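Can't attach files on this board, so I'm pasting raw text. These are the components:
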Amino acid sequence: MQTCRGGALVSLLFQTLVNGLLVGGLYITFSIGFSLAFGVLDVVDFAVGEWVMLGAFAGIGAKSWFGIDPFIALPAVFVIFAAAGSLVAPLIYRVRSSTYARPALMALAFTFGLATLARGTMLSAVGFDPRTVHTGFANGTLSVVGLEIPGLRLAGFVFAIVSTGLFVGFLYFTRTGLAIRAVAQDKANAGLMGVNVKRISMLVYCIYAGLTGMAGVLIGAIYAVTAQVGPQYALLAFFVVVVAGLGSVLGVFVAGLLLGVIQAVVTVYIGPSYTLGIVFGVLFAILLVSPRGILGRGMAV
Amino acid sequence: MSRASLAARVLVLAAVAVLVLTVPGWAGDYWTRILTGVCMWAGLALAWNVLGGYAGYISFGHAVFFGIGAYATALLMQPGRHWNFFLTLPVGVAAAALLAAVVGWPTLKLRGAYFAIATWALAEAILQLATVVGFTNGSSGLVIPSFASSSFFYYAMLVAAVLTFLTTYTLLERSRWGYQVKALRDDEATARSVGIDTTRVKIQAYVLSAAIPAVFGAIDAYWITFINPQSVLSADITDQMVVMVLIGGLGHAWGPALGAALLFVVNRQFVAEFGDTTSYIAVVGALVALVVLFLPDGLVSLIPGVRRLGLVRRLLPWPRPEAERR
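---
Top answer:
Structure tokens for the assembled complex are below.
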């Protein structure tokens, strides 16, 4: 009897950890672009959560307007969001690089305005009701050594790892990727070496918007979304970037998975209503104790 | 200034003062309520401006201090305790100031976006906490014994707003301390090198900026007679403060109050006209983006003569070339 209960407890723990890790993959996807856009544009994009929210609604729209399965529409979502990003990026760049007073603060305020605009528009368009992305794929659950693995979460995780892997490969094995990393490190020097800083910044913002939109579709398939869910995901992205340390790709992987696990563990063992409070409390504590990220690899704040 | 124009100025000021003081008499119930709200938001925007505009630290968590004031009043006025309203005010203010001092000391070491994120995270954590702990009665909220006199609340908000303006104006535009705050905003390292204790000045600015919203939170709770975490601690309140300051004029002595008055009236008219607040959110977002792009000094910079007073950003490190200003 005793061992039986012990076994159930252990398997609940493993189940929780697996669920957390799987969702953590999606956090990596939208945080890696966010982290890089932060590094390249020198702007914290407060609209990151709104890209997630818009992505989820793009998935819902693909199904209800065009009858296309949201997962099949993922490449289209990437293209559309990258295009939308290419409209926003020049504006952010303009504000950030203006010679006017305190461009960093103004850029922060600008993305905050964009986020508010997106949220208000979507609230007016679709209201407050929670919705879910419905897909014909991966709806079952997989049983592996006694663990129930929800197909959707697994699909999201695989997608996240593949897309993030492709992106990291692009960063480290192409000349453009090299230019991006150079700009993230030092704009002035990268410019002197012949890198077109403005073009690279646009490119990064577009890729980031596309990746985040796609992550939004998958998040919408796993969790219900409302038009006002954006700020919550923005804070999660901040969490990942802060814990990772600005500019650390490895850190983003660790922090994304850690966030997924913290969320899952708190939800199961303490209660869902405590989850966000504890996540934000941890974020606040880490910012104070170790602003360069838990791995200590980030740049100084 | 000639004697005639001085006399004209005094007359106009006196007329405005009389109009403002007699609002409950001529404005009717609806507009008295709206003007009460204008006073409240003007005070909140001015308070946020102390830290955001003068010290250069953007706080995305100021709703916490508003909420602390509201909760202090609501808890102390519960039937079991029934404190006098005016006795609850200093309690809320002290609690907010204490929290700001304790939180500010480590948080103000963070720069720019990191400070914004930290304050936002803290505010969200406290909002979640207030929803789950027992004594706040969670999301069901608290009911406060009502005191139905709309003119009382108008005058309370008015006095609080005027005192806020006088305090912030005196401290920031007419004192040595104000110069220290602006110096650290413009260049923290230089400010420290000329002997300003920047840590102390930053914390003082944060405490001042946090104590004021507690007053308005307290009056608001007593006025609305019902509070819950969503109504007094949510990020919407912080967002409003930020937006009002940006649109009015960041770092200007009274621009934020102008922004607050304008936005609040627009907001109420939107609600009265369309019955919803969601399109208002979109409009506010668009306004902020447009102001940042085309009018970074806010609406005050449109008023002729304001710039000649030299209040707008005279100390900023990258003054815009004169030719570009048009």
